[in-house]
Amino acid sequence: MGLNRVTRHIAPSVPGLGVVVHRGRRSGRIYETPVNVFPTPDGVRIALTYGADSDWVKNVLAAGGCQLRTRGRTLSLTNPRLAHDPKRRDIRPIERQILRLLRVADFLALDESREC
């Protein structure tokens, strides 16, 4: 948890990282979770390094979306869906290797909301 406190301050400006801003299902509290993020044509894929059963994933699925602070921007994301991808498609080779070593093959795919 200590690393998350540090990471969430630098993640919004570092390529490949971001901070998911989501609301707790029970508490209603706003949380910020640093993540590894990969752009897609319609939005983003987030590597589930904490696992698909993490509270933040459940919060985003229950809410139907979240905000993501990444590369100096805040994106509104919708239509969250879990994806299992053992080949880690569409991820740069070095990141693909790291995720393979960490045994991460689950992702959360989200679409960027085009509404203002």
Element layout with pairings:
Elements: H1 2-10, E1 17-23, E2 30-39, E3 43-47, H2 55-63, E4 65-70, E5 73-84, H3 93-101, E6 106-112
Salient structural properties:
single chain, 116 residues, alpha+beta, Pnp Oxidase, Chain A, six-stranded antiparallel β-barrel, 23% helix, 41% strand, globular
Report on the structure:
The chain is of the alpha+beta class. It has one domain (2-112): Electron Transport, Fmn-binding Protein, Chain A (Pnp Oxidase, Chain A, Roll). Helix content is 23%, strand content 41%. The mean pLDDT is 88.
Question: In a few lines, what is going on in this structure?
Answer:
Helix content is 23%, strand content 41%. With 116 residues, the chain is an alpha+beta fold.
**CATH superfamily membership:** Electron Transport, Fmn-binding Protein, Chain A
Rounded Rg:
13 Å
The percentage of residues in β strands lies in 35-45%
Label the CATH architecture. Roll
Fraction of residues in helix: 10-25%
Number of separate strands:
6
Q: Helix-strand pattern, N to C? A: HEEEHEEHE
Shape: globular
CATH class: Mainly Beta
Instruction: Find the structural class using helix and strand composition.
Output: alpha+beta
State the end-to-end CA separation. Answer: 34 Å
The largest β sheet comes out as:
6 strands, antiparallel, barrel
Total domain modules: 1
- Side by side, the strands of the main sheet go 1-2-3-6-5-4
- Model regions low in confidence, pLDDT < 50 over at least 5 residues: none
User: How is the CATH topology named?
Assistant: Pnp Oxidase, Chain A
What is the average per-residue confidence, as pLDDT, rounded to a whole number? 88
Tally of alpha and pi helices: 3
